[in-house]
Amino acid sequence: MPRIIFHIDVNSAFLSWTAVKLMREGYPDIRLVPSVVSGDPNDRRSIITAASIPAKKLGIRTAQPVSMALRTCPQLVIVGGDWGWYKECSEGFISICRSYSPVLQQFSIDECFIDMSQQCTPENAVAVATRLKEQVRETLGFTVNVGIGANKLLAKMASDFEKPDKVHTLWESEVKEKMWPLGVRDLLWVGKKTEERLTAYGINTIGQLAQLGMESLSVLVGKKFARQLHENANGRDNSPVETERAEAKSVSAERTFSRDYTDPKDIDRALFHVACIVAHRIRRHDFRASTVSMFIKYKDFTVAQKQTSLDQPTDVTAVILNEARRMLGEVWDGITPIRQVGLGVSKLTHESAIQMSLFEDPKLEYYREWDRQYDEKKAKAEDARMLAYERKKNDEKKTETP
DNA sequence: TCTGGGGTCCTAGGACCC
DNA sequence: TCTGGGGTCCTAGGACCC
């Protein structure tokens, strides 16, 4: 039986979702005009999170600074994001996809793979995918692209063909015709650096890459990556659709300042802030971390980083923060202006720390109590937000159906 | 024009052990 | 005194994804 995989991708997800919300409030459809979703539009440092198709046609791209996009298109419509709403849209989208096949892998907030081998045949796959896409549009109000292929790679490549609101196939027999003429950059896992290396060697298309000998490719990108690129360029991929969500391997948070900071007090405040976020997140998932890392980014975007291993895994904010502070002292001269600070933890386990009361820092109990109060405050704030959100939704329903 | 925030995986070199 | 080879762990850094 042939494998049939669908990759379903929401078209300009955050922008489409924002458009649906705004239309419910009576605004025109921002998908039809040059528009973008960004962080705080007033912050000169914010970048574009999602762009409409008309905006993309003008050359506006995701991850571009908002100020730059405004120069390209002064009448650009800029809207802020709404994470609660995005989560709701994502859940609705995933649940429709799941109703087509239980073998579903969520790849990101707006993308998933489903294994349809049991549910359809190569002959009716396009019809089934079209039904799925129509159902999402009719029920949720936004469009998706569906890519169909014999493996995840081909399905994902196919969903990236013409957008929006399209179904494309990329069967193995179509690889030469549909995939090989594309530039190497269009292949999954080929980013800017790899593209540069390949084109410098005269490899411009996926087809050329597919036919390049393994020895030459290994010299260019390393043995392991070469093997993967070679397989992928030839349309081969045997990775399964993973239905289990993998546990996080690391948790991190970072803050970019509105201007570059040199005052150690400002840097420390930011470090404290991100330490609270990271430690709270790992406690919520009942993790403890054995490695703490921190980095600072200077205004020229160079990064200095440090990481350190702990004797015992911890979830205590103060312990994590103190390690980060110590490392900051080691990497920063105290003078060079800093643009961004970040803090992360890894080597996560669910083991509880071995209690060695004799050797334990007597302050730890105090720190833990501080964390408990912090978590409680966060939980209360979250509850209040949820309540307000539900109330708002109910009010909307009432006005819809008087 | 001036670049966010959150992740994963890989490689290379050094330390240390047998 | 100087030498080997393999394995594992750690840190630093880089590339990619959305």
Describe the protein:
It is a single chain. This protein is of the alpha+beta class. It is 44% helix and 21% strand. Among the domains are: 56 residues, DNA polymerase, domain 1, CATH 1.10.150; 100 residues, DNA polymerase, Y-family, little finger domain (Dna Ligase, domain 1, 2-Layer Sandwich), CATH 3.30.1490.100. It contains 14 helices and twelve strands. The chain has a five-stranded mixed beta sheet. Helix 4 packs antiparallel against helix 5, helix 10 packs across helix 11 and helix 12 runs antiparallel to helix 13. The N and C termini lie far apart (53 Å). The structure holds a DNA duplex (18 and 18 nucleotides).
